[in-house]
Specification:
By secondary structure, this protein is of the alpha+beta class. It has a single domain (2-164), classed as Alpha-Beta Complex (Sulfite Oxidase, Chain A, domain 2). Helix content is 24%, strand content 31%. It has a five-stranded mixed sheet with strand order 2-1-11-5-6. The chain is globular and about 40 Å long.
């Protein structure tokens, strides 16, 4: 009987925490707000580098208009971030350190394997290198994305995402 009581407690504890994320232990590099179901603060989800590294990752080797040659951008898939926070909105307001913001359709992150790059050519991206996060579309894989619309959505020095309806 004690076994079943313990098992039930573990199961209910897991359900009670189903809507929460672990707490960051390092400096917070990304805050997600808005229409999200999973949080680790008062209506917000904060991520440090280690938490982002635990999400599904992708390497994208691509040309961009900001560099003269192809580079490898690595980091969590945008869809993995949406899933981690339980995002339900259709539009993302992606905000940079300098308050530049772009509206990005949430569906872009699922349709195009968009990466929130934390690394450039294997090196952690500093603010000087467009870090800590840089939204990268797979421009070389999907040439139709290589245009001003998607360049404008490719925010760098990202600090915040607001998930909107």
């Amino acid at each position: 009987m004690k076994f079943f009581t313990t098992l039930a407690m573990i199961m209910f504890a897991g359900l009670a925490n189903a809507d929460t994320l672990s707490m960051p232990t390092g400096p917070v590099v990304l805050t997600v707000t808005g229409q999200i179901a999973h949080t680790n603060g008062d209506g917000i989800a904060q991520f440090d580098q280690a938490m982002l590294a635990d999400l599904a990752q992708r390497d994208t080797v691509t040309n961009t208009p900001w560099f003269g040659e192809p580079h490898t951008f690595s980091g969590p898939l945008g869809a993995a971030i949406l899933d981690a926070v339980g995002a339900t909105g259709d539009t993302l307001q992606v905000v940079a350190l300098n308050d530049y913001a772009a509206e990005v359709p949430a569906q872009d992150l699922r349709d195009f394997d968009v990466v929130f790059a934390t690394h450039l050519d294997g090196n952690l991206m500093s603010v000087r290198d467009k870090g800590p996060l840089f939204l990268i579309y797979p421009f070389d894989e999907v040439p139709d994305l290589f245009n001003e619309v998607y360049f404008g959505r490719s925010v760098w020095q990202i600090t915040r995402i607001d998930v909107q309806g």
